Amino acid sequence: MKNTKEFITKIFLVALLLYMFLLSIGLMGAAFKGFGREFAENLIRTTSNPFVGLFIGILATSLVQSSSTTTSIVVGIVGSGGMGVGNAIPIIMGANIGTTVTNTLVSLGHVSRREEFKRAMGAATVHDFFNLICVCILFPLELTTGFLEKCATAMSALFENAGGIKLVSPIKVATEPVVHFIQDVVQALIKSSTATNIVVLVLSFLILFFALYFIVKIMKSLVVERAEIILNNVINRSRLAGFAAGLAFTAIVQSSSITTSLLVPMVAAGIFTIKSVFPITLGANIGTTGTAILASFATGNPSAITVAFVHFLFNLAGIVCIYPIKVFRRIPIKLAYGLGELAARKRRYALFYVTGVFFLLPALLIFIYRLFC
Length: 373
What we know:
This protein is mainly alpha-helical. About 85% of the residues lie in helices and about 0% in strands. It has one domain (about 1-370). The longest helix is centred in the first third of the chain and has 43 residues, at about 1-45.
């Protein structure tokens, strides 16, 4: 009886902590959007150079913490005639890299516990490395052949008069009222919008660190070794099941960042391995494109629908090019393991990686381009 009560209490605590974890991601996104949405929109409008467009996509999405936001801005600009589909494609590719910053930031919540941090950093960055490799393969191909634009244009013609469907994310329904309430309270106390965003961002990290610490602690006591082995075997033996789970869950919650961020503490706790969550991550990459496609149907604008399909085709082509080939499939996993090991030994490298890849390098290259062009 005592064990049953203890088990139920722990399940309740995990559910509460998961809510706090999701709330922290919502607060983080709200703070970043407050800082960067207008800047990101202005940034996206300013270039026709595909290489700069790629880095604008990375920086803009890292600032607003959402590829959906970046894609929506791009769709709006393309739909209004402010940008061609060809110019939008590199930005969409960059957005795919920038969106992985959220789960990488989540992994920093484990920084004080070396072994956990090693696993967490690896779980977060396998998504980064996969998307980086996809861009390295598909970006030059698109520049030389235009295959994504051609295929997406042909697909958009079939769906031009399709009606749009608006999906509601249950996680957003559960967390957004609390996020708005906290923002309003802080705004009423501080008055300054910039200071409000800073306080909300700091608060999000405090909640994140607190939730992650206790999620991992309680999960370790709940998941015995046998259950851990069974879970890993099921996912490892059926990669398709992992892929389908990632796709379906992401389509429901409408955010690949939420799916991949939820995997980080599970890998950190030793419940899953980097290898076993990789198919789930790939499924999330496809699942996140569904909302934009359905929303674009409502516009009836062929260019807007084309941009939405480009996002889907880019993610699909990346999976087809990399995952079926064993040698290629191992590359992002090995790189993620390697970075996890390095970050655990010298934790400052994790901070260098996040700030360098997602913020400093794209900003520097955009600045250099503006300076000389």
